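User: Can you recover a sequence for this backbone? Please restate the input before giving your answer.

Assistant: Of course. Working from this structure:
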């Protein structure tokens, strides 16, 4: 275990204590904040490996915290919402959250998701720059080692999971992937039917690579494929 630090942001102290208990048992260091403003200050002073972020927070809500974080950081974010409403999840994902859980949640499932996200993050950071391979489709160019994306020479900033999705589709142009397969490969575990996560990320990707000649097609009843 790498003793990575997890920041828990929630104004319900019993939730914070529960997550801290399980996270420490799993080998993670923890810190916590009970409001959004304090969380941002803590993230700036000592960036964590991952943030667990409740949506309903005093001072600054979770959406605003996520938005400000993503303006300057790619630290993974797992959002917590007390309402099982798609709009909350979609907004969170569009703002750059990597994952979400609806309260009440199983703390063991949360630990599994933390482990999967951090494992993926470590694998990305350990890639060898000297072994870079550029992927192309139309005017779209992607550098895996530098994690850079360009459309007609213009740099396009992608969030972590958007980039990982794009690489997978580019490496397998013309091949159709189910949503479940994309979840398993890119997120690292089974989301148990939460395939809306993929749909939101695909929609964002389409906007970012528009005009490149590369298209992410929907194969109805199956999934997605990339063509040029």
């Amino acid at each position: 275990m790498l003793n990575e630090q997890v920041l828990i942001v929630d104004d319900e102290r019993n939730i914070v204590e529960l997550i801290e208990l399980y996270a420490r048992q799993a080998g993670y260091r923890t810190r916590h904040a009970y409001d959004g403003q304090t969380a941002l200050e803590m993230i700036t002073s000592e960036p964590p490996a991952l943030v667990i972020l409740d949506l309903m927070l005093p001072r600054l809500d979770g959406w605003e915290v996520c938005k400000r974080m993503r303006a300057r950081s790619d630290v993974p974010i797992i959002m917590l919402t007390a309402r099982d409403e798609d709009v909350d999840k979609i907004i969170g994902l569009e703002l750059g959250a990597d994952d979400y859980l609806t309260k009440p949640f199983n703390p063991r499932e949360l630990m599994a998701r933390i482990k999967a996200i951090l494992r993926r993050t470590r694998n990305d950071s350990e890639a060898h720059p000297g072994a870079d391979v550029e992927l192309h489709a139309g005017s779209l160019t992607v550098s895996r080692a530098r994690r850079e994306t360009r459309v007609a020479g213009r740099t396009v900033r992608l969030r972590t999971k958007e980039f990982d999705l794009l690489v997978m589709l580019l490496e397998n142009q013309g091949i159709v992937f189910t949503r479940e397969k994309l979840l398993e490969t890119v997120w690292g575990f089974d989301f148990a039917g939460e395939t809306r996560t993929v749909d939101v990320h695909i929609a964002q990707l389409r906007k970012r690579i528009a005009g490149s000649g590369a298209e992410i097609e929907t194969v109805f009843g199956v999934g997605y494929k990339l063509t040029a």
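That completes the design. The first helix runs from residue 13 to 25.
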